[in-house]
Structures are given as structure tokens and as C-alpha cells.
Amino acid sequence: MSGDTEVLFGGYIKLDASLTEFTGGSLPTNSLGRDLYIPGLVPVGGEGEDPVFDFNPRESRFFFGFDTKKAGRKIGGKIELDFQVTNDGNERVSNSFSPRMRVAFLTIDNWLLGQTWSTFQDVAALPDNLDFIGPTEGTVFDRQPMIRYTKGPFQIAIEQPETEITTATGGRIMPGDDSLPDLALRYNKKGDFGHLTVATLLRQLKAGADVTGQDTETTLGWGVSGSGKIKIGSRDDLRFMATYGEGIGRYIGVNVVNDAALNANLELETIPTTSGFVSYRHFWAKDWRSNLSLGYFKADNPVQLTSGAVTDQVTSVHVNLIRSLTKKVDVGVEYIRADRELENGLDGAMNKIQFSAKYGF
User: Fold this and answer.
1) Which InterPro entries is this protein grouped with (predicted)?
2) How many whole angstroms separate alpha carbon 77 and alpha carbon 212?
């Protein structure tokens, strides 16, 4: 604290140790799908192998922030780094991984300018899981640059656009032709009961002539999401999220499917998706708690345009036991079962036991 300026520093150190079995194939040692649960990376259609053991401290993070008053305005900012999703490390000698930017934004009164969680996502409803996200397939999950305005319980933002198209063989094209930002609108209701959130998303999906071979094609993508955290008794709570949309694939389940496909006339057809999760947290005692989380995702892929080699459905179950050794130190164990099925019927499952230790500062 210096005058009217408050400088903030915080984060946490976390170690995950996991034993993972894939029934439909395997993942290489450097795959993100072995560090955390990514629905689209659960192998399908292959032969299962022996369980694999991994240590992973890469979720550890730190941030710097500030809040101040200048010329009658409230000004703040935050930058946050962690070590996930970087490819420059290995498990041979040093296990070194570079930091990456998660969040970097400036606030001026009611305005936010920079990168943070999408306005379409309700971070406060995320379950208390040891896995980085938890029931990922049912979760709106996106960090990106934006300009956001907040007035009381209402938020409106224009955010980074990026159209993703599924090819006729199930591949992915990112045309990079977007000319309008995504538009997100949100309403938050808070009270003694907890909180409820309703958010909508509007997008222009676009593919230029380099993709279609003819005139530029556009179509409308849209989505609506309801979520919240409801207090039950003195300490327990119920968290949930339900989302439906067309052309919002990159916002759901860490991009488990894409936004659209090209039909025979080289026009964009949006891909509808339905997803959600529910999670109940129960305190057994002051320092002991458990969470049961269920996740669901379903896509309505136009298989005549995308082939059957795309994800049709994903479900998962997560159950854990966590103990708080001190106010800032948690240790716990979690079991995850996830099942993924493609449109062509190929399927696979993941069984994972994860131990975690975390110190927040």
C-alpha cells in the first residue's frame, strides 16, 4: 500500500500426481491430456495399455495487480502467469517449462480492457475439483482479449473472434477472416442464497474465398448459458451450468467440437451443442470436504459434412476428498471417470486417480 495505490501479489504452488488408464488408446508423455482432463483428447477406438503415472506442478501460478485512484477515477490492473500448455520442457533432465500469460488487463472505472475469462463464462460456478477444470465437457471455458463494460449486475463485452470449421474428414480449419468481434451479454444476481448468472453470446462466423473458393461466407452463431452456486446449509453448496448454442464449439469443453462445417454449396452450417454440469460440495467436518461432479456434452454434428470422426458425446464423473491442513494448504485425492464417443461409434474411456497438494499465497 502506497498512498491511494494498493499493490497485490498472490498465487499458489500445486503438485498433481496421477495414475491414468485410457481404454481406447494412449497419449504421449508430453500430451496436455495427461496433465489435465481434456475431453477431446480421450483416446478412442484403440487398444488400452497399462496405466501411466505422472507428476505435474505446472498449474502453479502467480499474479501481480494494483488498484489506485487518479484524478477521481478508479484504475486497476492484473497480470497472471502459469506454466501450463507450453511445449519447451521435457521429463528427461530438468523438467523446465516456460511461464505463459493467462490474464493481462487494465480497468478504468467500469471498463475492463485486456485478456481475462470470457464474459460468457461464469468462473464463480466452477466446481471444487483437484483437476484443473473438473467436468470440462460441460463447462464454458475461454480466456481471451476483450473490452467489457460493467454496470451493476449487467455486463456487455466485445471479445476476440475466431471461426473454426470442421472439414469433410473431421479436421479443423481456422480461416482467420473474422471481421466482427464476438458479443457477450451477462446478468449476475447475488444474494445470501449464493449467485445466479445468465449469459448470451452472439458471433459472426466467417470463411473467406481462400477456404470456400468463392465469395466469402458468413453465418450467425449464438449461445445461452445459465449457471450458479446455491448455498445449502451452513457450508455446503450446489454448483451448476447448462449451455446450449449453435456455432459456439470453441467456447465449450476446451473446444471439444468446432463451430461450423461447409455444406455442398460451400455455405457455413453451424454445429449445435448441449452441455452442462452439476456439482455438490459437502463438508464432513471443519477441515474435510468432498465434491461429486457430473458433466455432459452432446453435439449434433452434420456427419454428412464432417464425417463420423468427430466427437458426438462426452460424459464424466468426479469424486474427491480434500483436507485443509491450514487455511492456505489443501491436500486431497480425486477419482475421474470420463467416456467419449465419436459419431462413427468408436469410443474410449479414461480412469484417473489424482493426488494434489496446494499452497495458496
Assistant:
1) DcaP
2) 42
Please write the tens of the pLDDT for every residue from 298-314. Answer: 999 999 999 999 999 99
Nine-digit cell at 316? Answer: 464424466
DSSP label at residue 173: E
- Collapsing DSSP states into helix, strand and coil, what is residue 86? coil
Which domains does the chain show, CATH number per domain?
Answer: 17-55+127-360 (2.40.160)
Q: Report which of 294, 328, 284 is spatially closest to residue 314, judged by C-alpha positions.
A: 294
Cα angle 243, 245, 246 (rounded to 5 degrees) comes to 160
Predicted pLDDT of residue 54: 94
Q: CA distances (Å), 347 to each of 7, 16, 26, 27, 353, in order?
A: 50, 27, 13, 15, 21
Cell numbers describing residue 291: 465434491
Q: CA–CA separation, 221 vs 273, rounded Å?
A: 11
Q: Kindly tell me if the per-residue pLDDT of 1 is higher than 60.
A: no
pLDDT band at 4 (very low <50, low <70, confident <90, very high): confident
Residue 326: CB partners within 8 Å, gap ≥ 6?
A: none
Taking the C-alpha atoms of residue 118 and residue 11, their distance in angstroms, rounded to an integer, is 20
User: Looking at beta carbons, which pairs linking 224-227 to residues 24 or more positions away fall under 8 Å?
Assistant: 224/198, 224/199, 224/200, 225/120, 225/122, 225/140, 225/197, 225/198, 225/199, 225/200, 225/201, 226/196, 226/197, 226/198, 226/199, 227/122, 227/125, 227/140, 227/196, 227/197, 227/199
Record the pTM.
0.93
Q: How many CB atoms lie within 10 A of CB 80?
A: 21
Among 47, 48, 20, smallest CA distance to 34 is for: 20
- What's the grid cell of residue 358? 496446494
Do the Cβ atoms of 268 and 230 come closer than 8 Å?
no
For residues 156 and 195, what is the distance between their CA atoms, to the nearest angstrom?
Answer: 18
Q: pLDDT tens for residues 101-118?
A: 999 999 999 999 999 999
* CA 26/CA 28 separation, integer angstroms: 7
